Amino acid sequence: MAPAQRQERAFLVGLDYRRSRGAKQNLPAAAQSARDAVQPSAVKNSNLLEFSAEESLAELRALAASAGAQTAGELLQRRDRPDPATLIGRGKLQEIAAEAASVSADLLLFDHDLTASQQRNIEAVAGIRVIDRTQLILDIFARHARTREGQLQVELAQLEYMLPRLAGRGVEMSQLGGGIGTRGPGETQLETDRRKIYRRIRHVKEQIENVRRIRAQQRQRRESVPVATVALVGYTNAGKSTLFNALTQSAVLESPKMFATLDPTIRGVTLPSKRRVLLSDTVGFIRNLPHTLVSAFRATLEEVQRAALILHVSDASSPLSAEQDVQVEKVLKELEVEAKPRLRVMNKVDLLPPAPRDALRDDASTVHVSAAKGMGIGTLLDRVDQFLEQDRPSRVHLRVPQAEGKTLAMLESRARIYSRQYQDGMVELELEAPESVVRRVREFAVSGSDLMEIRGEPSSRSSRREENEA
Fold it and tell me: Which domain covers residue 195, as residue numbers?
């Protein structure tokens, strides 16, 4: 049996630019801040809800753990502006290199994006691998992508990230410089590698376009029947997959690691009105989500763009819930879906102390739940039922022959039956059912029933039977 791979030791480097930082809003740590944080006024003043340098470094620590690294040490530097050559300055770089060596670190993780030249300069001094925040997120995505679609989207993001960073990555790819006598095989190799990457990017984009075409066809088939789609969105590790499982009785992977869900999953859910909707679980968002990832995952995020309702899931137990919600708002705006109907779901209320938890109150746009404990799930389904306009339920009065077994079975499963009486071989029903169901049984409507107000031509029994068989 092959020996277990040694866990890499990472030294984390955080930065805080004093000149660009605004005064951070002091917010209560528990659910009250989470519930009230992202109101329109807060979004307009989102500079007041930015992550502090310490909070950002803590998130980098969680990202490193999700990538399988062990944190060997960390350092937070405060300075007025970034150093163009090394980001942190030569003196601080020497200090970090010494500290990383003292704890036997295998790599440096920067909580900041690095240019290709900055990465080269830092590696030259530190003598170990240097990875920036975007590269770390891309690595986590590559680890967690399971479907062909997810793998293609991650590969595209990695290639687009790598392309401007080819120069100087290893001796065999280095540009030797400019001027007579300095051109050589290094430049040729660089251009060769660029051509290979451009060719691969074109190939991957073609495959992703095929994926988008297939998704569009599947979506078109879904939209041909009155079934609305509800999309779960939220910050990474807010509990979206756990909530998805609680609502759909599925077994999607649940993990405390960041970005555990990359591949979109769609399952059917039956609402209290007996309407069927499709629930879509999506990739989690994060602050400063790399633009290459947003572009690459456009095919997946189209499910959010086409959804009839967005469930914005927040971690009510996190002291950073307000800041996280602002970051989600930014991504939704980039996807141009900020105006869609939205219901905020404050998850993980079971992790709050008793007093703050007891003080929580649902309102017209917010529901408090614990997906892990099953708390508030019924209320959430009721609220989703109220939000959705598609295939609204109607209350009707029917008289159905007992011989119509298929029709009665369909009504039993698709309608809420309030009363039922048997007389002279007929079943008289008072029920509430989605409009798509009511249309199929309108020939059995009792004169004067609200059913007669439903639009559409009366169907014959034979055409209704054809619909049932179809």
Answer: 145-208
